[in-house]
Predict the structure.
Amino acid sequence: MIDWNNVIESLPDEGEVVMPLSDRWDLSNLEYLKIYNQWTQAKFNLSAIKWTNYYPGIHFDTSIVEKFANTLGVKILRAWISRIDPGYFAPWHWDVDDHEDEYLKQGNPIRYSCFIEKPSHGHIFIVDDEYFYNQPQGTVVKWKNYKSWHSGINAGLEPKYMLHLLAVYS
């Protein structure tokens, strides 16, 4: 069993911040450009789009993701913890991944997301047409497709944390 409260408490204040037009958004990549254009056409408030990613082996202990993957019976391709602070959101998008071709060589990727915090009002996660709100800590969502459109919203008063795992069956 993973102590999710301890995992959250052990995360550094600083992670890798993702915002539109940041160094993580290479608009020469047509997939990033398509998402960005959809956001601007929808007139999203770009200054409210922000999340922070934490990576195993850099920001937290790799053994956490290994335990999680072992519980699911999968082999890790990629994993990270995301944090959305109050008042921010990650609008409708799919994850662009520069290493997708490498993952596909290992099998058909599967995506999981886990609510690693205790339920908190205003924390919303959407994958395709499924909405997740007030989920118990440790709830795992297996995506129908690893490339699904999704969104995360923090209309609450506490940071919103989730663990994301891209994997293949071992």
